[in-house]
Amino acid sequence: MADFNKYCQEAAAEELPDSEEEEDIGDGDTCSAQDLAAQFQLQYRPKDEASVSLQREYVLSLSADQGFTRVAAGLSSSAVHIYNLDAGAGTLSNFSFLPPSEGQKVTTCGVRFLDEGPHNILVGTTDGYVRLYDLRLKGEQARFSYTQHPEVAPVPKSISCFDRNANGRIICCGTNQFHSNVFLLFYDVRERRQMGVYCDSHEDDITSVRFHAQNPDLLSTGSVDGLINVFDVKEPDEEEALLNTFNTESSVARLQWHRNVYDKDVVSCITTTCDFKSYESEEGDELASFERPAITTAIARKNVANLNVIGAHNQEDGGVFLLAGTNYNKGEIMRSVSVTSKNTLQPLANFQGNKQIVRDSLFDAKRGLLVTGGECGIVTVWTQHSEGSAIAGDKLKVKKEKKSRKQAPY
Predict the structure, then answer these.
(1) Which of 239, 278, 320, 358 is deepest in the core (most CB within 10 A)?
(2) The model's pTM
(3) Residue 362's closest CA among 300, 310, 306?
(4) Which domains does the chain have, with CATH numbers?
(5) CA–CA distances in Å: residue 346 to residues 29, 103, 167, 255, 261
(6) Is residue 272 packed enough to be buried (19+ CB in 10 Å), middle (13-18) or exposed (0-12)?
(7) What is the pLDDT of residues 51-104, one digit of tens each?
(8) What separation in angstroms does the CA of 97 have from each of 3, 74, 119, 377?
């Protein structure tokens, strides 16, 4: 406990490059503690936590296998820490460590388990590679990178985001703008080859690519240009593949797929200005739109400038909730609100004991379990807290990764 608190205090003492002004702004709740408890009736506390490093490393991305038995955390150093997760107990244990890539200023741009099992993992890095590891074997099993085609304009040797499709056959990578062009790069996983390139549908940095969780041919992409594009990737060329385009009139940060009450596919977007929008992917109707002030009010906070919208998650009953917090006081406040069918936000859960500004989150709807990672390099498992039970977060210790060769799958 003492070691963990000391680590968090030291990490908090280091100023983030863009957080100093936010510290001076101040913030607070819009209601009393009693009113908060009445509104946010679900109470979550940390059940277990692990520190990825005692160095200043951010957790940039998280991924879990389909059974939620293993969690991978991609870091700002481009290393990846992998944990076994006992979802029933809500506890983490070290499993393995994938070392950082060579080169300066290389970070992870995503981690994804390839298929239904917990063994095959894809790691994307900003130096232009997606690496495939089998955690049962030594070394990389494959490496995917761009191969120039003479009919396509030069492509940067870097990627900004990636995803794999539902059956683990295709990888799609998005790039930043390069020579006034941006690209979606496609790879065949089994044949270890590049399949093709889309280069006409976006005009600025691609920030998110997201395959549908069940339909392996359905892909959504988002960009700084404000557009969300939906593709059917089984079509032979880009123009025929493009099914729909939505203009968010902002800059896209994060995409997610959902199903609405009419069993229609919905794609949602969190913008870089912390707005939330969702669209029916086939018909193109806007289903929900909440700007930053409305979300700030919904989580009962005063200062709009401090809002941090972390993610949109699917609930077991088909509902959708937004996980949001503030950048004030190193992210101490974190709450969730339900997106209702009446286009309103309803208070859902309060997460007490947060120690960092959260960068990514995972939600296991079957168990009501949340996993977060963020700017203090902590992976946290959150479970519902009942009155009278012990606050597990007060008893946690740092789980430092042992650099044992026995644990390393290489």
Answers:
(1) 358
(2) 0.89
(3) 310
(4) 2-145+248-395 (2.130.10)
(5) 16, 46, 35, 21, 18
(6) middle
(7) 998 788 999 999 999 999 999 999 999 999 999 999 889 999 999 999 998 877
(8) 22, 10, 13, 15
